[in-house]
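ok so I'm stuck.
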Amino acid sequence: MEKDVQPDIRLCAQRALWGRVPCSLRAFSVEVGATVIHTRSIFDETATDADKELLSEAGAEIIADFAAPFRIEEEFLVIPKGQEMYHLPSLIFLHYEP
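replied:
not stuck anymore, here's the structure
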C-alpha cells in the first residue's frame, strides 16, 4: 500500500518556506500527483528575480524530502494585488490583503 503523502507535503512545504517569504509573495500552494509535486508561487507586481529564486530554493527543499520517481514542477505567476488568484489543492501560504 502506498503512503499518503498529502500530510507530508503540507509540513514539508511549510518548513521549506521558513525564511523564504518575500514581501511580494501573495500565495503559495502545492499539489501532489502520482510522481509529480507541483508548486505555484503567486507574486504581486513588485516581484524580483531574487524573490522567485527564494521560492525556487523552497521547491528544492520540498523535492529533497521525496524519493525517486518524484520530480517537481514549479510555477511562478505575477498577479497584481486585487486580481483573483487560483490555488492548487493544498494552500500553504496566503498573504493578508485588506
